[in-house]
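[job 4471] stage=fold_predict status=RUNNING
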Amino acid sequence: MTNPSDLIGQRFSRLVVLSRAQNGCGSKTRFNCLCDCGTQSVVYSSALLRGLTKSCGCWRVEMPSRVFKTHGMRRTAEYRAWCHMKTRCLNPKSRFYHRYGGRGITICQEWIDSFEVFYRDMGPRPSPRHSVERKKGEEGYNPANCCWALPGAQAANRSTVRFIEFNGITDTMAGWSRRSGVSYLKFRRRIMDGWPIERALEAKDCAVRALLFKDDSAEKKAA
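[job 4471] inference complete, writing structure tokens
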């Protein structure tokens, strides 16, 4: 059995034993201890030897804040993007899991382990409309394959997007819609109806004239 006097001067975590104190309940040995924070307290020898008491009480206050202390960005859009990325790829209960983790889209281990590393590699989000985009849709989330992108760029990267080539230019239907001034829904309907690309890209007034001319020709033939 340890001689109580042998504990004087010893350190137990944050506590240094100074001297014997009055025995406690059941004549149990107690010691006056000095904590690293400067506070003195009376501690049972059994609590010191078994590691049950590590400080005057300041350790219990500080540890939760240390454990949960973060980068200070928990409420930022970048942090939410990191969380959503992990949820899509790692949580089978996510409603989007089948489109990401369920089909083999992975996240590099450094990003899984640390938001700070993710933020270091990606940098701040350029605008509220930007979100994390994979440059190659079949590859995972990693520094080489990810960037901040606007919704239009993300839509163009989906495997279901149709690309159309015309006059040496390849673009999506949304891109051709913007180029021509024809609404996307109208342009898409024209393409789905089998219109030639040059006709589908005609502005509204030109298309109307073309249709009227066709109708006039049909009426003359009928006459």
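[job 4471] summary: The chain has three domains: 4-68, 77-147, 163-222.
[job 4471] exit 0
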